[in-house]
């Protein structure tokens, strides 16, 4: 599941504030509440600060590079970005499964971060065979860029923790899960984190770490997220293994089959390594299958396109069916025809009119986290692009008019009606209330008579929904 870079939100905010970036380092230890020495809990979870860093953008923003270990597990590397006032607030974990880092001090990270972006031999991956194993995508990222990517959370007074999965280092599925568990345990050690307001985000393969890591943290340490936000997530590895095996029956194109085999090879090797003790047994992948997630207790928001050829949308359908959560939100990008495996590209969406715009979907994911984790009495700031929102809504209306079931989108629209929400239109640089954004787009497609103003539109969403 080739990941795409998270939006560099700092550039959106700078569009309005005309800020200038100035990278600096080594703030005084009192600026962040993690001490320079290791912090150890009775269960042998240890975290230490590798470096104190900061950057300037309409003020100085501090962050820390963290090494965490638990027992004999491989270390987890994280980036702790407190809110600017270093006061008690909710926190967001952002799980980066792929990104390569250059600051851990480990030779493997130095090696991969120096390689070019794009395909590289998976020579540190499990069961690697130089003749048959596929390449993986290398995605170097600097800690400064990563910190700037989290600016939207900081501007909403939230703390942020980036957890790096380091896929390139050969970590298995079990490593993804452990990294996320370590993230929860780190936040549990922070006195400035409101433990009742922790959220977590990732996409695609990152869904494995988020979902099973959250389940493990809750089961083993009673550490629970308030909310989970995901984009086209892998949620059932047993089903994914079966999907990989089914590709020959889905396409008659020999070239296309080879593309699927090559794409899934690194994932299959990592899954098999994590479960090799059960090789040959029918229960081999049960530990990472949907029934294991049934007891997860958090509000959940998922975006998924039903033209996703990498992670079938049925995974998300089944996930929502099996979980007993009362607060579930989903945005499905619906299409009038089924996937044509002979012609469709390998991607989470298909290029053209019906493509799910990544920037647009990510604004929904972040919008959900921010409005779930912040005080409704404070001003909450999110971003959007008017043209892509218009295209998204237009597609939903076309599908609705054609008889498709778009009812799941109603609850998503309701997110625009949450109180004290200000949305930055990155195309114009102007701010609008969430309800005003909603009424504007509704009136574009239904005529100005659909609703007179934002509050009227939000009320009508309940009594006479547009989709």
TrEMBL record:
Superkingdom per UniProt: Bacteria
InterPro entries in UniProt: AB_hydrolase_fold
Keywords: Signal
Signal peptide bounds: 1-20
Alphabetized PROSITE patterns for the sequence: PROKAR_LIPOPROTEIN (PS51257)
The keyword Amino-acid biosynthesis belongs to this UniProt entry's keyword annotation: no
Protein name, as recorded: Peptidase S9 prolyl oligopeptidase catalytic domain-containing protein
Species of the source: Bacteriovorax antarcticus
